[in-house]
Structure formats: structure tokens, C-alpha cells
Design brief:
about 150 residues, alpha/beta, 5 strands
Amino acid sequence: MVDTGGFMERALREARAAATRGEVPVGAVLVRDGAVIAAAGNRTRERADPTAHAEIEVIRAAAEVLGSERLTEADLYVTLEPCAMCAAAISFARIRRLYYGAEDPKGGAVDHGPRFYHQPTCHHAPEVYSGLGEVDAARILKDFFAARR
């Protein structure tokens, strides 16, 4: 799978920027009609807000820019498999496609853990594509946590 728009590379830049702020290095980019609507990295520590994950940040920003809580024609690129909270927000926003880089066997909720989009209570499941930028995304995370040990 090729990211011809360079959107995952932009998400990786957001992840690196998050790391320089001392945040867990996850980055996300929300795209509609081939244009970046919002880009962000984690800001949970900076904002003292456990919900300030990169995915939530871009969903909030894009909804404000577009004036709608429904992002039906939007695609989300994120460097790490979303957690349950973010998977639910992606579903509620009706995001069309989710592209993620590194798998998260411990905290992921898309292809691991609760597999949110496969639950009968899930009202909307995006198309999911994993592994885009996986090597770089995993390396950024490994380097970040290795420096803290």
C-alpha cells in the first residue's frame, strides 16, 4: 500500500514533534478531498487531559473547521493502532477510512483487544488499512520509550 499523498509522513512528523514535547509519540492527520484538514500529535501531558490523543485532537479540529460532527468523506492517518476511546470517536465521526502504522497489541482496539469495529454495538466501521509507515512509526515509539528507561 502506497501513501501517494504523503499523509502518513505528515503523521510521522506530528509523532516526532509530540516526542520532543515529552508526549507519547503518536501523530494523526485527517484528510478530505486530498487536502489535510487537521494534523496533530498527542498532547495529554501538555493539556493534563487523558483524552488529548492525536486522533481526538484531529477529529475535534476537523469538525470545527468543517462545521459538522460527521466526517463521512474523511480519511484518518495515524501512526499507532487506535485505542478503544479513539476507535469509538472514529466511529462516531463516521470517518470513511482509517490508515494506521504500528500495531498496538496491548492498547490497540482495532485489530487487537476489543476489535471495536467487529462488535455488534458498533454503528459505523471505517475501512481499515494497517501497516502504512509501520517501521518508522514503531521505531519512533521504541526510541522514545528506550530513552525513558
